[in-house]
Amino acid sequence: MEVRQVNPGTERPIEKLSSTDTDLLKKMYREMVLIRRFEEEAARAYAMGKFGGFCHLYIGQEAVGTGAINALNERDYILSTYRDHGHALARGCDPGALMAELFGKRTGIVKGKGGSMHFFDRRRNFMGGHGIVGGHVALATGIGWAIQYRNEQAVCICFFGEGAANIGAFHEGLNLAALWKLPVIFICENNHYSMGTPEYKALSVPDVSIRAVAYNMDRDLFDGDDALFVQKKVSEHVEKARRGDGPSLLEISTYRFRGHSMSDPAKYRTKEEVEIWKQRDAILRARRMLEFNGVAEKEFARIEAEIKDIVTASLKFAEESPEPPVSDLYADVYAV
Ligand SMILES: Cc1ncc(C[n+]2csc(CCOP(=O)(O)OP(=O)(O)O)c2C)c(N)n1
Fold it and tell me: Would the CB of 196 count as within 6 Å of ligand 1?
């Protein structure tokens, strides 16, 4: 099988930040560390057979979800794929309830009935966790329409991979969102592989963002290794959508450091390629930026210790929580 190397773009320089931006980056650094440590612990538990089913890790892509979600306020909506742990954590969903959901426990965020791919938190307008590639792009358009119909001051962000850009619902969703000027920001997290298929074997035009042109929609394409940069870029499109000036399609280049799911040995890419992308780890970059802007060593140790406690507590909560009883089987099947 032909294997071509997929490279990241040129790294942006480490720069001097305002104190507001330093504080924001520190907040996002903490969230990215939470996502990383939560998933490392989840992966360990999965490997030990403590829970089963599908489990897709977000490790490597943290700056995209964290940056984008920090461009939102609490009234805004988020839709995610089966790679939803990072988005849910960045949105502020309770790590204990998320870990319990992985374990299929009654205290899980959807009472143990959804698992890894189907996190959902109505209180935070976190509208899932969706397993059907691209299907939720049409749902995002529906949410955008509901926002407009009800005259809510909200926007909707829809995350998906480059594989979803080849699905029919993607095109239907973008067309209607543009036609009706709906407040939706479509974010393609291009990690360059759809399961084992590299983008150069699946996309006739490798640039996903250019598909926006077909729908008369604004577009942007940039690297996703700098959470602050992502936050600022996405904010521009969020504010535009909030003003009623319609949707955008953003393609953000990123990389998953692990396999597609826990059962993927990732033989379709080279170790050298993975190493190149790991040098561009968004968490390391955020740390370098913060150090350059005067954040002291002990602050990173404090964050690391705080996150360790949160993740350890979430694991304990998940392990000690009860299984859903059989009598729950038919509950919550239909919404009323
Ligand atoms: C409609 C549909 N077809 C196939 C699958 C099986 N499948 C699950 S994930 C995946 C790859 C999707 O890749 P991409 O959209 O790039 O997202 P990534 O996993 O890279 O985040 C496929 C083909 C599915 N879940 N839904």
Answer: no
Q: Take residue 161 and report the two structure tokens written for it.
A: 């991979």
* Contacts of residue 147, Cβ cutoff 8 Å, sequence gap at least 6: 77, 154, 155, 156, 182, 183
Q: Which residue has the tokens 């996002």?
A: 28
- Fold assignment, 19-321: Rossmann fold (3.40.50)
Dist. CA 208–CA 190, nearest whole Å: 8
Given a contact cutoff of 8 angstroms between Cβ atoms, the answer to whether 163 and 133 are in contact is yes
The residue nearest atom 7 of ligand 1, judged by CA position, is 133
pLDDT of residue 336: 67
Q: What is the DSSP letter of 139?
A: H
Running DSSP on this structure, what letter comes out for residue 121?
Answer: B
Q: How far is CA 309 from CA 29, 47, 302, 316, in A?
A: 17, 21, 11, 11
- Residue ranges in the chain whose pLDDT is less than 70: 1, 336
Packing angle between helix 282-292 and helix 19-47, nearest 10 degrees?
150
Measured over the CA atoms of residue 202, residue 169, residue 221 and residue 126, the dihedral's sign is: negative
Q: Would you say 180 and 244 are in contact if contact means Cβ atoms under 8 Å apart?
A: no
3-state SS, residue 168: helix
Separation of CA 198 and ligand 1 centre (Å): 12
Which residue's alpha carbon is nearest to atom 13 within ligand 1? 194
Residue 287 is which amino acid?
R
Please give the structure tokens belonging to residue 323: 């299984």
Dist CA 161 CA 142 (whole Å): 19
